[in-house]
Amino acid sequence: MSELLMEPSLKAELMSTSRITDIKTDEVREMVLYIDEPSFRYREGQSIAVLVPGKDEFGNSDHKRRYSIVKGIQHPSKEGTELTILVRRCFYIDDFNGERYPGRASNYLCDAKVGDAISITGPYKSPFTIPGDKNANILMIGTGTGIAPFRSFIEHIYKQKGGWDGQVRLFYGAKTGLDLLYMNDENNDLANYYHEETFHAFNALTNRPLSGEEKALENSLKNNLQEAWDLIQQANTYVFISGLEKVAPSLDKVMIEAAGSEEAWKALKQKIKAGNRWSKLLYN
Predict the structure, then answer these.
(1) What are 198-232's pLDDT values in tens digits?
(2) 129 in a domain, yes or no?
(3) Residue 242 domain flag
(4) What is the pTM of this model?
(5) Are 54 and 61 in contact (CB under 8 A)?
(6) d(C-alpha 15, C-alpha 199), whole Å
(7) One domain, residues 172 and 277
(8) Which of 103, 124, 145 is a domain's end point?
């Protein structure tokens, strides 16, 4: 019996699904799931896993893919919980035969219809933990749908905690202006916090058509290098990194330039890690 079949799962009903990017760019959907289970509880920054039924073209089955919870509502008048996730329709190229294949989980979810039952597991512990001290600085760095846990963070510290005294900064990269909708500004949920004195977001685009989101992130950091460098050097700054695996080397590249050498940046990064102020959630 497979590990996935042994893991307890729940049924979630798809309440809504809407595309938040233009048809001319990659498809990203905001999806709302309802879990009719009183015992299901989550915290900001956690994730769930979607179980995809059936076998793929290689005969593999029981596919599982994790998605960060963007936001959730636990209704006092209901026993269940509504969760919002962001899903980007993905494809990959097989290294052996060069064929293009659809990503199983992302295409399964993007093709799902309202009312469909979707099997999930979790929630899973997040590598991100909001500092206990409201004077701490929070530095968030990400690309693509990696914005999901950060949106949850920002909502939590300003709405549920009633504000934040330390500096909160978000550096985010996108391939096109339309991709900035990953931040879901269309629904104004991040824009709601732009009036906060301690919050600021720095967004940038790649200036090369074939470049990826990581190049756009480099632009975001380089365009505001002094801001990022000053913050990351402070002893009470917590660094959170989320998105594609390419985010990490892009950050290293810019910070090496700011530090003056690779050795200096490695030493500073090790100091941050030793203080448990460095967390990342990266995916392929």
Answers:
(1) 988 887 656 554 456 778 888 889 989 999 999 99
(2) no
(3) yes
(4) 0.71
(5) yes
(6) 32
(7) yes
(8) 124
